[in-house]
Amino acid sequence: MSAPKGRGEPRRRPNRPRTRPTARRGAPAGALATALSAADTDRIIYDLTGIEAQYDSLLAELPGTDVRFALKACPVDEVLSCLAGRGAGFDAASPAEISQALRTGATPDRIHYGNTIKSDHDIAEAHRQGIRTFATDSVEDVTAIARHAPGARVFCRLATSGEGALWGLNRKFGCAPEDALRILDTARSAGLTPAGLSVHVGSQQMTAEGWQAALDLLAGTLTSLAGRGIVPDHVNLGGGLPALGYRDRHGTPLDPPLDKIFAVLREGMDRLRALAPVTFVMEPGRHLVADHGAVRARVARLTHRRRPDGGDAHWLYLSCGKFNGLYEMDQLTHQMVFPGRPDEGVTIPAVVAGPTCDSDDAYGAGLLPVRIPRDLASGDPVWILSAGAYATSYTTGGFNGFGPLPCVCVRTHPSPDHERP
Ligand SMILES: *Cc1c(COP(=O)(O)O)cnc(C)c1O
């Protein structure tokens, strides 16, 4: 079954890879490249033009979807303003995130409270801020919403397995389908609108099967809800869409099957629309920003040491790491560019790590080497690519004195229409 055509755009022919705004790998381009080359101190750089193109590309793939950026993935005012200017809404998880979303240009009707975990005070505060749509996954929470945000719309998050994702997000969130019936029934009796269902397939979901399972779960639950006379008006497909530029812990490109994922999504959305008159919300985080942010760091030291057990290893210590920009070192590695060092030069395997006195501050748990140039010196610049997601939000206040990276936003083609007032 083919997806409905969006905005009169021709559907692309199969087997013809389309150029995406996101480079799967290779050298940075445009404003990002210019800014990296010009940087003489450490920083994190976001390419607003790239982020806008990524947003447009997602809408072209899934026409009609209400995209609400999960702002924890990049809580940078300029980035949020640029997305809001493009028409994006926001998935916020606390009153402080709601404030930031409002401050950067979204109206309350374009923001929902997407966190299932909230105190009475959080609910009341969000309601005061004008928020009228809330995620939930328990009777206790929905009862509190009825009390502190009377008349609100609620959507119920279903638990998923997280299989196929780098970060599963299972266990802590979501309920079983039978509980969703009970929760939305409770909502209705308490004067709330049982407005929707949601899922999150896990962050950096690498398989189309992960999405297929979630869509099957949604279809089954929509059918059961209809049996109780509950007809939600929307389905929230959550986050989980992958970044394209990551490498695995061994340094091999991850290469997620994005086209296949979109095909499964389009088909699944058609199927759900046939079951109930629903519209679709998505809450992408990393997919919109990861590949359009890069870190400019430096080499602290390249060393070679023998270990007590007889083995030996090269270690490349960088000026930034897990605690100031590269939090996700636990599951992935980033492509590194050493400007001025040709790719064809002599390379050696080295374990790459951050600068702090914490052994978690290393790629691959400090065990998995990747190839780097042999002749790196302290102070040499290094560009760390596809580092735009979850960098600033997970940054510590300055563990061991290694403070947050200064943040810079750049554009390739200045477009006055979308510049900040
Ligand atoms: C973090 C989060 C997202 C974004 O997830 P990504 O994997 O970055 O796309 C979306 N929805 C909810 C509820 C989240 O907690």
From TrEMBL:
Q: What is its EC number?
A: 4.1.1.17
Q: Which Pfam families match?
A: Orn_Arg_deC_N
SUPFAM superfamilies to which the protein is assigned, alphabetical = Alanine racemase C-terminal domain-like, PLP-binding barrel
Where does this protein come from, organism-wise? Streptomyces malaysiense
> Which pathway, per its entry?
Amine and polyamine biosynthesis; putrescine biosynthesis via L-ornithine pathway; putrescine from L-ornithine: step 1/1
Q: Which UniProt keywords apply?
A: Decarboxylase, Lyase, Pyridoxal phosphate
Cofactor requirement: pyridoxal 5'-phosphate
Residue ranges of domain Orn/DAP/Arg decarboxylase 2 N-terminal in the record: 50-290
Q: What is this protein called?
A: ornithine decarboxylase
N6-(pyridoxal phosphate)lysine: residues carrying this PTM: 72
Q: Where do the catalytic residues lie?
A: 357
Single GO molecular function = ornithine decarboxylase activity
Q: Which segments carry the region annotation Disordered? A: 1-31
What does it catalyze? L-ornithine + H(+) = putrescine + CO2
- InterPro entries, A to Z: Ala_racemase/Decarboxylase_C, De-COase2_N, De-COase2_pyr-phos_BS, Orn/DAP/Arg_de-COase, Orn_de-COase, PLP-binding_barrel
Q: Does the keyword Transmembrane apply?
A: no
| Top-rank lineage group of the source organism | Bacteria
Q: List, alphabetically, the GO terms of the cellular component aspect.
A: cytoplasm
UniProt keyword Lyase present: yes
Which family is this protein grouped under?
Belongs to the Orn/Lys/Arg decarboxylase class-II family.
Ranges of Basic residues composition bias in the record: 13-23
